[in-house]
Specification:
Chain lengths: 57, 347
């Protein structure tokens, strides 16, 4: 892979190829997906806890 | 109030990780020399092109006289003349001396804006004889200038752009240590009190920690492929990490194998205490006493000792907090699921 970096111009493989923006975008989408699924799970668990143990809420 | 604080740290962990992703992938890499062409020199006047990656170290209109290159042979310096400069390369001419202490030459490029760039073993002079560099070929080192680069990550040979993985791989292992530590405490408390709740805490911690352990292995393997050229090498640190993950998988297998046996809590707690001790031994103790490619181990300094600079720290520390908080959030969810399941089953 380092050889690829050298062949692919010396302007910098990561930024020169525009891949940095794609990687950032994909990582952010995954992060938002994780956050939404955890948040939904958290809320559902809260409801379940209220239903199963109403005396504690 | 409690609900507000809960959402504050949970949302905060996601915001911190979003910052890490954006900042971590948008910060440019500082310039670094990667090659000299030709790298095989003979004892004669020569022209050599030194090439760099990362941020530009020169502007298009810069004069060659603003840059200096010296080659080092052993503890002696050889003078060169910079004839051409571009944003990512310099061309030098030099008279290769007939005698020098070492046939391998290191290159130092002194720049006004990017400080000093270094390339070890840049060139090799097969035909040179052993001896001192004659005075006519010698040079004195220019005084290094302070780099004036903006927010950027340090350049490290071999690691290069993959230094960004530091923001993923290392915090994931830290998160795993943290949560396995919680599991260890929970197991000790379970052994002392025989409480089902402590057992559920330990189980939730191990399950969450295993996720982060597997992520740590995956990101480490990817990093190894880039820097060492193989997905996996037989290294004490890597093997220790794999054995640790397998040990903790054994914890889950033990629980599953015992089913509803009343003794499962205590046996699992004993196993978990053993697994945590092995984690400390395999990941923190043994690799320090053996040769390892991994940074921070014997003969191989960690990032913190020389190149975890302020730019990297500004993203690395939020990454540690962010991944740690996300891991703890997942742990609390798993624990609440365990408690709900236990409550429903015991009705």
């Amino acid at each position: 892979m380092n050889a690829l970096l050298l062949l692919n111009s010396l302007e910098g493989f990561f930024f020169g190829s525009g891949k940095a923006h794609v990687v950032t975008g994909v990582a952010l989408i995954i992060l938002v997906g994780i956050a939404v699924s955890l948040w939904r799970m958290d809320r559902r668990l809260g409801q379940l806890e209220k239903e199963s143990r109403p005396d504690q809420h | 109030m409690k609900g507000g604080w809960n959402w504050f740290w949970k949302g905060g962990s996601i915001l911190l990780l979003a910052y890490v992703v954006i900042r971590g992938f948008s910060a440019p890499l500082q310039p670094g020399l990667v090659s000299a062409s030709p790298s095989q020199l003979s004892v004669a006047p020569q022209s050599v092109l030194l090439s760099a990656v990362g941020q530009p170290f020169a502007n298009p209109g810069d004069l060659p006289s603003a840059f200096q290159v010296v080659l080092r042979s052993g503890d002696q310096l050889i003078k060169t003349e910079v004839t051409e400069v571009s944003p990512h390369s310099v061309r030098i001419t030099l008279d290769v001396p007939p005698t020098m202490p070492s046939r391998a030459l290191d290159a130092y490029l002194f720049t006004p804006a990017a400080g000093t760039l270094f390339l070890g073993n840049a060139c090799f002079v097969e035909s040179a004889a052993k001896g001192d560099v004659p005075p006519a070929f010698g040079a004195t080192a220019p005084s290094p200038q302070e780099p004036q680069l903006g927010f950027s990550f340090p350049y490290q040979p071999n690691i290069m752009e993959s230094i960004r993985n530091l923001l993923w791989h290392v915090p994931m292992w830290f998160a795993m240590f943290f949560i396995m530590g919680l599991g260890f405490v929970a197991s000790l408390a379970q052994l002392r009190t025989d409480s089902v709740d402590w057992d559920m805490r330990a189980e939730a911690a191990v399950k969450t920690g295993l996720v982060f352990g597997l992520l740590g292995l995956a990101t480490g393997s990817l990093w190894a492929r880039w820097t060492w050229g193989a997905w996996w090498v037989s290294d004490p640190q890597l093997n220790g990490a794999l054995v640790t993950v397998l040990l903790y998988s054994g914890y889950l297998i033990l629980r599953a194998a015992m089913g509803d046996d009343d003794r499962v809590g205590r046996l699992a707690a004993v196993y978990n205490v053993f697994a945590f001790v092995m984690l400390v031994v395999l990941l923190m103790v043994l690799p320090r006493y053996t040769e390892s490619l991994h940074p921070g181990k014997d003969g191989n300094p960690g990032f913190n000792s020389y190149d975890l600079d302020n730019s990297l720290r500004a993203v690395f520390y939020p990454a540690v907090i962010g991944w740690g908080a996300l891991c703890y959030w997942m742990y609390t969810l798993r624990l609440r699921m365990n408690r709900c399941a236990h409550h429903l089953l015991s009705r």
